[in-house]
Amino acid sequence: MAEAKKTVLILGGSSEIARATALTFAQGRWTVRLAGRSHRELQREADDISVRTGRTLTIHQLDVLDHGSFVAFVDALPDLPDVVISVVGLLGEQPRAEIDLHHARKIMRTNYEGPALILSLFAERFAGRGHGVIVGISSVAGDRGRGSKYFYASAKAGLTAFLSGLRNRLAINSGIHVMTIKPGFVRTRMTEHTQLPPILTAAPIEVGEAVLKGLNRRRDVIYVRSLWFFVMLVIRLMPERIFKRLKL
């Protein structure tokens, strides 16, 4: 990709994974644009990364639940990016979602509806231009629903299926590549007091590096820690009569 056309837009830009991804791309001399709801948080991340890399980042207001604003958001960008990465996500609280339909709806809309709709819009703009890369951060949780987080898992399964279908549709002669990233456990502030298996737990920077590496290698689906592929293969192949008895 030519130096003049190395622009990446990161949606959900104030999360720890987004920050690590932005840092990785900025260190690679990309022009980085961060989009999200909180102007203050985006500015803080942009300023920190700028100091670390010497690159100037731009920030852009976006509420992924307000699909009526998507066209205006894209039209207002300084340019159509070469790569758009959705890091948008909300784990939510499974027990609360079981009794609070508003919370359940927010989990499903944040993890599936919003990202799918805005990435679809970018796909059409990229198709009109003739090139572009779309990256969605999904989850291993979407590989099979588990009782401990099935609202989140079902939404991520929807996003994974959406990205797969979009990739299939655009695979031939479109100039557009679609990539799905499945991080598994990630060490963040939210999980710092949780005991996670080190072999299956990635740092946020590993996710950012996996995205950039996958981009350069034109990968389709990436498990950030490769062991997750085999773990989830076993879980997917497990008969339902056995699986439903497990507390996962």
Distance linking N and C termini:
43 Å
CATH homologous superfamily label? NAD(P)-binding Rossmann-like Domain
What is the structural class? alpha/beta
Strands in their spatial order, largest beta sheet = 3-2-1-4-5-6-9
Please, how many helices? Answer: 9
Mean pLDDT: 93
Number of strands: 9
Q: What is the percent of helical residues?
A: 40-55%
Instruction: Determine the CATH topology.
Output: Rossmann fold
Instruction: Note the run of SSEs as H and E.
Output: EHEHEHEHHEHEEEHEHH
- Specify Rg, calculated over alpha carbons: 18 Å
Q: Which term fits the overall shape?
A: globular
Which stretches are low in confidence, meaning pLDDT under 50 for 5 or more residues running?
Answer: none
User: What is the makeup of the main sheet?
Assistant: 7 strands, parallel
